[in-house]
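Purpose: get a first structural picture of the assembly so the mutagenesis plan has something to point at.
Setup: two entries, given in the order below. No constraints added.
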Amino acid sequence: MRSLFRMLGRALGFAAAVFAVAALAQGPVEVQFYYPIAVGGPIPKIIDGYVAAFEKENPGIQLKPIYSGSYQESIAKALTAAKSGDPPVMSILLSTDMYTLIDEGAIVPFDDLVKTADDKAWLKSFYPAFMENSQTGGKTWGIPFQRSTVVLYYNKDAFKEAGLDPDHPPATWAEMTADAQKLTKRDASGKVTQWGVEIPSSGFPYWLFQGLAIENGANLMNAAGTEVYFDKPEVVGALQYWVDLVNKYKVHPPGIVDWGTTPKDFFERKVAMMWTTTGNLTNVRANAKFDFGVAMLPAMKQRGSPTGGGNFYIFRKSTPAQREAAFKFIKWVTQPERAAQWGIDTGYVAVRADAWDTPEMKKYVAGFPAAAVARDQLPYAKAELSTHDNQRVTKVLNDALQAALTGAKTPAQALKDAQRDADRLLRSYR
Amino acid sequence: MTRTREWIYAWLLLLPAMSLLALFTHYPAIANLWHSFHSTARANHPSVFVGLDNYRSMVEDPIFWQALKNNLWYAVGTIPLSIALALLMAIWVNNRIPGRGILRLAYFTPTILPMIAVANIWLFFYTPQYGLLEQFLGSLGFASHNWLGTRSTALPALMVVAIWKEAGFFMIFYLAALQSISPQLAEAAAIEGASRAYFFRRVTFPLLMPTTLFVLINAVINAFRMVDHVVVMTRGGPDNATELLLYYIYEVGFRFWDSSYAAALTMVLLAILAVVALLQFAFLERRTHYQ
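Result (structure tokens, whole complex):
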């Protein structure tokens, strides 16, 4: 019997020791965060490097980065976790997920965390084009981090072969059409061996289409995310031009052009010009075995491109200490030098103007001027399509675009139907 | 006393499997039915009972009907072909031919590969202009075609991937069944002068019926369950031409966050599978001889 008591006593002592250790371990603030990977490159290594450097400077904070898959998988995981009551403290998610996250009550605005003059200056330092997708109703819900725009990549060798000036990429739709006609090569039987231009249309065609619409003089939605303008004449005209590239000018492959294989088409010289994200810059630089150029998207009534990519969000279900810690990290990682290095390492657009004045960035741009094209395009960039019930509204537009591109509907009819469906979805948010 | 003990013993043996089934299959199914009668909870709108509203909006949802239609075509297109191909391959590699081990492995390889990887490979097979299929057809003088980017060919293109993936898996079952058929039957038939076709029709095929039933049920379930390649290759596009029921449920549930509507859609999928399974058991059971 006595030995039993002794055992019990020992067990209790052991348990107490374990609890003591656990209590000590609770000392630092733990900040879990999700991050997706959407472009090539050693992203996890870079993120782990940031985390280690930040923790060294801030011993009271323990960051737990978790790779969460694609953007789509990340929002699914983050929202599922939020619904089950155990979300990460912060997460990098698409800037367009803002309304969804607000409607789900999953995130908190940054306004309560921005207190000092320094903080306020920091918040103002980002490019306004990126903040459009980060603010609504007078509050800031997201902080730009891995952001991009659409640019035009072109094969300079193909330009030379076609008798075009390789240093003069198309600046207008008319020029792009004319160049594409010269760049489209057919063999003796009339089969196309090289297309003039590709605008990918699988997965999220709305993003590239938005570039066309802005260039034609209209964006697709209002700033409150409650109205869309799919059936405006400018928007219909933009889709008509895309369809014309295929059917009328025959310089763009018919059917749906896959987003994922478009860069490969470009490397294989099956297409001379492609529209894709600036995030592909590092990929193209590594894989194109010819001299290539990067240009702003061509203008119709104006230049234009949607922004894209991911923002930092802070989740509601977190302690004040965790929010402060997350905020500290977000500020730390968006400092000019780091924003610049992140842009150089990944191909994303450095999110603030002063990042482009850092010595590293200046050196990089001097050796690789293509990197600055996205920055130069930013003054013309507009917010990416984002509304309440965003994924559904976006799908309505995607389906309409694909219907028009595959010839099932005329552009006007497809967009009229899309407007009707989107209005029905957005009614309850007005 | 012993009877009671046996009884307890039996239930104890059943308990682990039962509780797992109840926890991960029966309870979710019932909870799902319950959710399908409620609205989706949002930040400021808690979930309320809405009766059949979700089912009513389903009737009016053109994408649901499109997905259902696509899925039926997908089932009709993939099931008979993959089973026929499996049987053919099994009979082929059951013969004593040189290198049959390698042949069997070759037929079985698609099954081992993960669907995501397979879909990525096929994505490049189907790529216009320089994809494998295009190069082959191009060398024969055919015009270039955008297989996944055209409404009429996108779903058949996915069906081919599914057949290619499934046939090898079903072949294994047929192969095992063929090897369990006594060779004496073939000898007896040969003595009686029965032709090979007659022997197959009257002896082999009836003896394979239990396997066919099993394979058929699996094929039906897979036709409604396998959507990995849709995610990789088309994401339901162009314009919902390859939208399958389960992929639509995923979209509604995890992209639109309308979990109640997704629950209602899931009930439809469950009902379809239940009906198909019941029909198969009712009709085929009678024609099936178990040894």
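Chain B has a mean pLDDT of 87.
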